Amino acid sequence: MKKILAALLIAVLICPAAIAKKKDEQPAQGLQYINLTWWEKYNDPILTEYQSRLYEKNPDLKIASLKVKEGEKIVKISLANELPQLSFDGQLNRNFKSSDLYFGQMTIPSFKQSELQLPLTMSYEIDIWGTNRFRTKSVEKRLEMVKQDERASYIMLTSAFAADYFNLVRVDKLLELQKQIVDIQTEIVKKTETKYKNGLCSKTDLLNEQKALTYLKEENNTLEDRQCLLVNQLKSYLAAGADEEIKRADCDELTLPSGLPDKFDSNIIENRPDYLRAEANIKRAGYDVKVARREFLPRFVIFGQLGFNAYQFANLFNSPAQMAAAGILPQFDLFTGGRKFAVLKLRKLQYDEALQTYQKAILTSIQEVNDSLSMAHSAQKTYKEDVDRLAYQEEMFDLLTKKSQIGAASNLEVLYGTQARLLTEKELVSGKINLLISSINIYKAIGGKDLYEAKNL
């Protein structure tokens, strides 16, 4: 019997190492989630550099990664609960007994003695019904959900950063053009004042030009405020210091995306984090239902002890002091007040909820992909119209300049023409940035996948 127990305890020591052996943890997926190869297609080294810095500095991304690591440890804890447990419970007691112990007619007199116990205790729940295995699988699916949350954080944050970055480039260019427009309007006001003094225009004309100048200055102030807010936002993303300068490219140097896809196959949504998370949630809820059903079945626990028990230290390791015990403990709950039935119904309701969440994720995904494509096509058409309008305006300005050279147009008319050209250029800048941002929205809607790779699937 003792040999059997010894062999059992040795198996307990060796078995966990064999069962718990897992593949090494994968390296951090952050850089992969950042998807630098996609951002490099905008041909903006500054944007690519900042996207890499997000991975290193952004607190939200670090929090998401830490949650994944926490989930991995929870899986290990659940796996450990499947394995045999071995513990050492040593005791040193000093017993003082009074003479009130009887064995039939014989009375044991008062005595005192020491008791030494050095046992190894083993217990292992035989997972006949697979209950513990299903618990671990449920926890593993929770880990998959957390990983998809992490991936979603990377996609959302990098996309939001890029959109704010391009908006800042837009504001920089608009502010540059707006200052030129304000300068021109200031010159127009001066010339109108001269005309008014010479009796060549009415007071109303002068007041209208002065009022227009105040509107233009107000728009200039709004753009400056917007510029400051965007700079602060980008600093927050990058965990940058208050005095650090945020670099950005010139709007004229940005590369527009070409050949945006007209449509995607419906299976493109299978790459989205929310879809994969909802799918994992269904499986998790299914495992929880299986666990709740198996809670109605009996459990069987193998237990055993092997060690030494003696009343004197000198005799502790002698043969008579050796102790051994083993057995199987069946456990079955006869009455729990309806708790198990309530848990089973709860798990079934959670499973139904997970199914509805999955259906909602599918509908939301399809809507967001279609919306992003529609907005991108609209932005593309608008940008083309802006390009054509600017070309017409440039041609009109050239004609006006030639008329001015031959005395057929006044300097004031040339100023109005210059101002009109700058206003049209502002529309083109906004259209260009809107097209860039629309490509980011498609990237986000299809789950952070390269648009040009996705359309070829």
Q: Could you describe the 3D structure shown?
A:
β3 (101-103) and β4 (106-108) form a beta hairpin. Helix content is 65%, strand content 12%. α6 runs antiparallel to α7, α6 (131-197) packs antiparallel against α8 (273-294) and α6 (131-197) runs antiparallel to α10. Strands 1, 2, 5, 6 and 7 form a five-stranded antiparallel beta sheet that branches. It is of the alpha+beta class and 457 residues long. It is built from eleven helices and seven strands. The two termini are 65 Å apart. The protein has one domain: Outer membrane efflux proteins (OEP). The chain is elongated, with a radius of gyration of 38 Å. The longest helix is centred in the middle third of the chain and has 67 residues, at 131-197. The model is unreliable at 8-27 (pLDDT under 50).
